[in-house]
Amino acid sequence: MHYIRFLKPPRLLSGRRGNAPSVLKAKVTITTDLGESFLWANVDLVVELTDGTGNDVLERGKGYTWKGSEGMRSLEVELLIPASRGKESGEALRLLVRPKEEFQAVETFESFLGDSNEHEDTGEMGGVMAVRSMAIDMPSNQSLPVSTSPSMAERTFKFGTSEIHIWEETGESIARHIWDAGLLISAYLASASVPSSRKAIPPLPYLHKTLSQKDLAVIELGAGCGIVGITLCTLFKQQISQILLTDLPEASEILTQNLSSNLSSKNISHQVLDWSSPLPQNVRETQWDMAVVADCTYNPDVVPDLVQTLRRLGEARARASASRQMLVLLAMKVRHDSEMVFFELMAEAGFVVREKCTLPLPVLGGEDEEIEIFVFAMG
Ligand SMILES: C[S@@+](CC[C@H](N)C(=O)[O-])C[C@H]1O[C@@H](n2cnc3c(N)ncnc32)[C@H](O)[C@@H]1O
């Protein structure tokens, strides 16, 4: 998967004279989730201006080409905005940068779950994810160039009639943007939420059975922006009575933002939970039916603490009820062999893999990748 990102957030330069149009400028790049490699293929992009609610402001967007084959690493984009727009009404404007071709746009959760047999590994398939800026307020004094520095950007995912809006930070933080494994497991769970869509995804019967029960208490560890927990809470409303998204303190602000952008439900909340600290009392005292972990196993130094946290949660559940076990749902993109220590430690902690599956992840201009999903229970 490739992600369009704002390197420099959009800033508005006012026209010098009365009715001269203003210019909205931004610098974008296109990278993988880790940001470690740029998109090597060429992609036609469209830059559009929308109002705060997503409606187009200009008649048509402006086209650009990302020339990855020539080693492009960043692209300056700009739009002319009529002086009449925004400034008088105080209208908030937003910049949307998206791939022009529909087959590259990944707007719906269904579009992430391609069939690995449908294409050969030619590097010609693979999604490029659109990004939308924060609202850029028009200046009240047109003679001054106005430079806004929003630190967040939004990505939208559709599934049926539901839309999930996930804000992420535009900077370098790895805690606070969307990751491939979180994205793919969210798409998987979305399909699992509708019986008729389940045939399009690899079967995980034990997971599906758990997710069909009522009054489920779910905890997510290392939730980041919260995409997985928010997807679960949105699409399994009938089944989940409580869902807690946890991470380090630095993720709290983005989690607050994303919870309020998506859900008004009392069933979902977030709180700090550091794997290297003892479980907070409320977490210790809740009988969790499922713990969700997406893209958290890449750093072998913190994996022992992560497994220890899962063990404490699983043992507390087992002590409370012999009949209902806590299931651990894990999604990972294996990046290096050292990540396998997670499985050794999980086995030592008494967890067994009940089922697993692999989701293909085509990568434009590169070798295809895979996201692996594991369902563990205490043996
Ligand atoms: C790669 S991100 C994945 C985020 C999210 N699960 C997703 O898939 O989008 C890894 C997450 O683990 C969290 N994390 C790392 N060490 C942690 C610790 N000791 N305690 C709690 N969370 C931790 C990070 O803050 C980060 O949000």
Sequence-ordered SSE layout with sheet pairings:
Elements lengths: L1 E12 L8 E10 L10 E10 L10 E6 L7 E7 L10 E8 L28 E2 L1 E3 L2 E2 L14 E8 L2 E8 L10 H13 L12 H6 L5 E6 L5 H9 L4 E8 L4 H11 L5 E5 L8 H4 L5 E5 L8 H18 L6 E6 L8 H8 L2 E11 L7 E10 L1
Parallel strand pairs: 1-7, 12-13, 12-15, 13-14, 15-16
Antiparallel strand pairs: 1-2, 2-5, 3-4, 3-6, 6-8, 6-9, 8-10, 10-11, 16-18, 17-18
Helix pairs in contact: 1-3, 6-7
Protein name: UPF0665 family protein
Organism: Lachnellula occidentalis
GO molecular function: S-adenosylmethionine-dependent methyltransferase activity
Describe this structure in words.
By secondary structure, this protein is an alpha/beta fold. Helix content is 18%, strand content 34%. It is built from seven helices and 18 strands. Strands 3, 4, 6, 8, 9, 10 and 11 form a seven-stranded antiparallel sheet that branches. Strands 14-13-12-15-16-18-17 form a seven-stranded mixed sheet, with helices on both faces. The chain has a four-stranded mixed sheet with strand order 5-2-1-7, with no helix packed on it. The two termini are 35 Å apart. Residues 141-150 have low confidence and may be disordered. S-adenosylmethionine (SAM) binds at residues 174-175, 178-179, 181-182, 222-225, 227, 247-248, 251, 274-276, 294-296, 302, 305. It comes from Lachnellula occidentalis. One of its GO terms (molecular function) is S-adenosylmethionine-dependent methyltransferase activity. This is UPF0665 family protein. Pfam families: Methyltransf_16.
